[in-house]
TrEMBL record:
One of its GO terms (biological process) is phospholipid biosynthetic process. The chain crosses the membrane at residues 51-70, 76-95. GO terms for cellular component: membrane. The keyword Glycosyltransferase does not apply. It holds the Pfam family CDP-OH_P_transf. InterPro entries: CDP-OH_P_trans, CDP-OH_PTrfase_TM_dom. The keyword Membrane applies. This is CDP-alcohol phosphatidyltransferase. Keywords: Membrane, Transferase, Transmembrane, Transmembrane helix. One of its GO terms (molecular function) is phosphotransferase activity, for other substituted phosphate groups.
Length: 317
């Protein structure tokens, strides 16, 4: 009897856990096995005591920035503490989204804040590594590579996040995705007043630029989204959802590679061997080619469906 009760509880917990995820298509295995379970427990605690998703995100910023500061020091044990702080910061980053889905407390501002959180972490990490390496003998020219790596990271993360949300839009519809576009953002932006809504308008202006850059790097995808939204509104036909998922799902592994886990694993390795400067070159010369490949592949997928929808008006009906 007790075993049956335990099984029922485990099934209920599993169901709640699965509901806190975006989609198995877009989740990385390390996240599902490690970060998401930890994040789920944190989210449960936060839900009970009334901590909001945005508060969790802000707390994660402090832990992530602190981790970066500790990477400045040459002492390995201090670096290990930084690694643990960064792992915990990412667990909080997982928890904020899970908490938002569990409590139905999702907002555009929360999404924007969540995106900026990672930028704060890695800005701290880049600066700390650069200062440390210069102290250890590198010239000031290392700042050039530091900045180029930082810009690369921002573009990689932006496009990976965008492609994930596009995938979620096509398999779950508008309600299951956080996909934004500059046209809708401009409407909301124009409705705000600099005098009465200065902070909201300022944040939305930055986010609009961020979204515009994502769209510039995906012209065929923009054409596909325009056709789909004008023809089907938000009610996508089942056939299109199935076909798009089949062709686009293989690209999700590349969005994961250029995101947190892969870069952090290599960062930790280079910290252990005392050569963290390698991280800058890994960002530029390993992850950037993967980014370019990912963008080209996605454009081919989008081009396929643009041709399909253009040449066959009855497709999906």
């Amino acid at each position: 009897m007790q075993r049956e009760q335990v099984n029922v509880v485990e099934e209920q917990n599993l169901s709640a856990f699965e509901q806190s995820l975006k989609s198995n298509d877009t989740e990385e295995k390390i996240d599902i096995w490690f970060y998401r379970p930890i994040g789920f427990r944190i989210a449960q605690i936060c839900a009970k005591i009334g901590i909001t998703p945005n508060a969790v995100t802000i707390i994660s910023i402090f832990f992530g920035v602190a981790a970066g500061i500790l990477f400045y020091y040459g002492d390995l044990w201090i670096n290990v503490i930084g690694m643990l702080l960064l792992i915990f910061a990412n667990s909080l980053d997982s928890a904020d989204g899970q908490l938002a889905r569990m409590t139905d407390n999702k907002s555009r501002f929360g999404r924007i804040l969540d995106g900026f959180a990672g930028d704060f972490w890695f800005a701290s990490i880049h600066i700390a590594i650069c200062l440390r390496s210069i102290n250890e003998g590198w010239t000031d020219w290392l700042w050039v590579f530091c900045i180029l790596a930082g810009v690369s990271h921002m573009i990689q993360s932006a496009m990976a996040d965008y492609y994930r949300n596009v995938h979620l839009f096509f398999i779950k519809g508008k309600a299951g995705s956080e996909l934004d576009n500059t046209r809708d953002l401009k409407v909301d932006y124009d409705a705000l007043s600099w005098k009465k809504n200065f902070f909201s308008k300022f944040v939305l202006n930055g986010y609009m630029g961020y979204t515009r850059n994502q769209e510039k790097l995906s012209p065929k995808l923009q054409k596909l989204l325009h056709i789909v939204k004008s023809r089907y509104k938000d009610d996508l036909p089942k056939q299109l959802m199935v076909d798009f998922r089949m062709k686009n799902k293989p690209l999700m592994k590349y969005t994961n590679i250029v995101q947190f886990n892969t870069r952090v694993i290599f960062l930790f390795v280079w910290l252990f061997i005392g050569q963290p400067w390698i991280y800058f070159f890994f960002d530029m010369f390993v992850l950037n080619p993967i980014l370019i490949y990912m963008c080209n592949r996605q454009e081919k997928v989008s081009g396929y469906f643009v041709d399909k929808l253009t040449n066959d008006p009855t497709y999906g009906e």
